[in-house]
Amino acid sequence: MKAFCQLVLLVTLLIISGVLPSCVSQTTRRFEFNVEWKNVTRLCHKKPLLTVNGEYPGPTIAVHEGDNVEIKVTNRIAQNTTIHWHGIRQIRTGWADGPAYITQCPIREGKTYTYKFTVIDQRGTLWWHAHHSWQRASVYGAFIIHPRTPYPFSVPIQDEFPIIFGEWWNGDIDSVESEMMKYGGGPAISNAYTINGLPGPFYNCSNKDTLIKTVEHGKTYMLRIINAALNDELFFAVANHTLTVVEIDAVYTKPFKTKAIMIAPGQTTNVLLTANQVPDSSGIFLMVAWTYLTSVFPFNNSTTAGFLQYKNPMSTEHTSQHPNKVTTFDPVMYNFPQMEDTKYYTKFSDNLRSLQSPRYPCNVPKTIHKRIVAVISLNLQDCPANKTCKGYANKRFFASMNNQSFVRPALSILESHYKKLKTSQYSTDFPEKPRKPFDYTGVDPLTENMNTEFGTKIMQVPYGTNLEIVLQGTSFLNVENHPIHVHGHNFFIVGKGFGNFDVSKDPAKYNLVDPPERNTVAVPSGGWAAIRIKADNPGVWFIHCHLEEHTSWGLASGFIVQNGHGPSESLLPPPKDLPSC
């Protein structure tokens, strides 16, 4: 007994001194996911929709920081599938990360795989989604990590709820993807955006499919906002209300107020909203999401909306009927940014700063061991002989990083790396800078040779490397904002700008004090973003654009973090139920 008490005292002292994290937990949270078809109707179109447990969106996973998590996924469809826990760092558990053929082979029809990992030093809003083909069009949900200590802001929270943006196609999403890949053209655009799976009142046959959230006057609410849309960046706002941003990608920020946010696919944003307005007799205010447009490609120029409904102050009851149909939305009417308002987005983005408090420090690497300049580009490939191509000028669209269009191998890269297979279908010679520098954002968008090379080239760095990646946009085909997601690590956005990155001038202007920490960065349209990563998680990690069409076209790569010293810096062995190819 004496020895046990001494052990408890030692652990307590270590926690107080900061040697061990205070979120140590012996709790294991278990969930069961069944990937299955469910008939769903939206916009008066009924179709089989791929779901988890028959829910659209899928079930919310709620855990506490420090928890062990086990999610048993059973594939009940006649297709392969995988699930990715977007933003979970997967410390030493890359086998549970989920991207098909990167960290695992897919779960086959009728098979089961249990994803096991621990939530280490993370708290806030993340999400999960399918990571095979375009299944994440409907297979997604919120992943909420509750903190074990109070929020770093003093406002009492009455309630919190997820706001998840998505896209709805009346047709079959598999056909949309296969048509795009077969002929090399752009994908058919979605028929609607959705909030929590509901399109809202601006679409035909959709008034009943409208999200309504009830609030009490004077109370403050936390909105956990997730952009799960496949191919579109979105503005979001609530009429007559101010939003206070307090967290991005499960990292606390310096709070700031804004009338609207911009959120790219893959990103999450927590905002506080105080119900301090005086509603009219309807008791409602519009919650709305609309496109942030940076592309000349066809897009879904529509608006999804729900309602914030105040409780009747004269009664404890609240209205449950759907409000009368709203038929129009114009951002100008509400003093919201219009869809091409890059100036507004830039100002919003510049306000994002890490909290940088003693409890939540900003551990940005001040120096680097390696800088990689990755040119992210759309490409136009010559059409093969005797083939039909439907891209611009009867060619095929592709995308690339440093003119390398990524091809997924037949066996997962992580398995090949772990087993040191000599027949590996990947190589670690991804070019660390463009082979032929040029005026990336000033080049003629249509007349240059835009053919790309194809392969499975990734990077490899030693454990503990301070890595800087400069993501440089181009004007090939058109300038465009690209949301780039890095698996297995958070990163710090130390710099960004328009035009071409200048290595002799731009690093001097980096923010190395309180840069925003994220897992997905929206690279400015016609510009660049510099991110810094502490590569301290052994394994294989995917890097890709979170516009699904661009990933399908090859705008992706990855990097291997080698094992460090000893077991605590080494990848764990693969689980026994890891799917085989």
Which characteristics define this entry?
six-stranded mixed beta sheet, 581 residues, mainly beta
Task: Tell me how many strands there are.
Answer: 32
Strand content: 35-45%
> Could you give a short account of the major beta sheet?
6 strands, mixed
Number of helices: 5
The CA-CA distance between the termini, in Å, is 51 Å
The Cα radius of gyration reads 24 Å
Structural class: mainly beta
Spans where pLDDT lies below 50 across 5 or more residues: 1-23, 314-320
Strand arrangement across the biggest beta sheet: 10-9-12-17-14-15
Q: Summarize model confidence as the mean pLDDT.
A: 93
What shape does the CA trace take? globular
Describe the 3D structure:
The chain starts with a helix and ends in a 20-residue tail after the last strand. It has five helices and 32 strands. Mean pLDDT is 93; it is low at 1-23 and 314-320. The longest helix has 16 residues, at 2-17. It has helices at residues 2-17, 173-183, 342-350, 413-419, 548-553, and strands spanning 28-42, 45-52, 61-64, 68-75, 83-86, 112-118, 124-130, 140-146, 159-168, 192-195, 212-215, 220-227, 234-238, 243-248, 251-258, 261-263, 268-274, 284-291, 303-310, 370-381, 396-401, 404-406, 453-455, 459-461, 465-472, 482-486, 491-498, 517-518, 520-523, 527-535, 539-545, 556-561. With 581 residues, the chain is mainly beta.
